[in-house]
Amino acid sequence: MKKAVSLILCAMMIIALLTGCVNKGGGSGDKRSQQTKIFDEPEDSPEPDGPEDAGDSTNRKKADKDKKDPGSSGIKKKPTQPPVQESDRNEADWAVAYLNVIDKLIEKYGEGIMKENAFYGDSCMSGVGVVRLIDFDGNGTYELYCAYSNGESPLLNKQVIYGYDNGLITLMEERDVSNPGTDVSPSVTFLSKFGKVFLVQVNQIVDGKYYALENGRLQVVFEYYYDFWEEGINSVNGTPVTEDEVMYAISEMEAGGDLEHIDFYGDDEGSEITKTWETIVKIWELAQ
Fold first, then answer.
1. Per-residue pLDDT at 257
2. Which residues of the chain fall short of a pLDDT of 70?
3. Residue 71: per-residue pLDDT
């Protein structure tokens, strides 16, 4: 009996010793042995301030690469718009200024329209009938030409020209339009030559002036006087000449250029009025 008890006690001691060895070696009986290695390091270890603190650790280098710009506090910056080009800014500025001019003229004299006129026997333009953008001096910035009826005539009888240089400039104050015939024939003529545009002003055939934009003003650069009724009073730029010499000087002035002539009456289809509205729409779009 004692021998049997001794055997049982020995067996139990062997089992206890074996069980203790398993637990001490990291077996499933010790819950702490199941925790991950990360808890062996301080949980609140500071992040490196920059690449100089990152060391050679691959993970830290990647963290530095992914790190947002210093001072951003982790907030993504709003993408900035591309800077406005000076040419675009200038274009919008002069467009706004010209649009204000057109609005005031229309408010005062009415919109450009075609209407029948019994006195002249044809349809004619009235109101603010002709609006054009013209680069008179070829510098890449448009000037504004406007012709309108100021109420003294059913036809367009006045014209002005504006420019822009850090503000609106009056290049030509209000004056009568051309009347190149012996009857009532208001119109405007533009001569395009050598990259410039000249305003041609002719009155009753005999008195002609060609204006060019120089030094911020529209100035006379060529003029003639021609009277086919009387000899001895014809001239070119103030110098007396013969009738033939007047005609030759005019042809030389216009040689190599293109002439655009706009009659202010007789346009039954209203094509010039259409061009006026297309120009106004273009200016409005540029002003936005």
1. 97
2. 1-89, 117-122, 182-183, 205, 228-232, 268
3. 42
Alpha helices in the chain (DSSP H): 2-24, 58-66, 86-109, 243-254, 271-287
The identity of residue 103, as a single letter, is D
Residue 64 forms part of a structural domain: no
**Count, residues in the chain:** 288
Contacts of 20 (CB under 8 A, 6+ apart): none
Instruction: Let me know if residue 15 belongs to a domain.
Output: no
Indicate whether 199 belongs to any domain.
yes
> Computed over its alpha carbons, how large is the radius of gyration of the chain?
45
The predicted structure's pLDDT at residue 7: 43
Report if pTM > 0.85: no
Q: Cβ distance 226 to 246 under 8 Å?
A: yes
Please indicate, yes or no, if residue 4 is contained in any of the structural domains.
Answer: no
- For the chain, the domain total comes to 1
In whole angstroms, how far apart are CA 185 and each of 84, 148, 189, 255, 262?
Answer: 46, 14, 12, 25, 11
Contact between 207 and 225 (Cβ < 8 Å)? yes
CA distances from 134 to 24, 51, 142, 158 (A): 98, 60, 5, 18
Tokens of 111: 């919109």
Q: Which amino acid is at 119?
A: F
In a 3-state reduction of DSSP, which class is residue 208? strand
Q: For residue 156, what pLDDT is reported? A: 92
Domain that holds residue 280: 86-287
Count CB neighbours of 55 within 10 A. Answer: 10
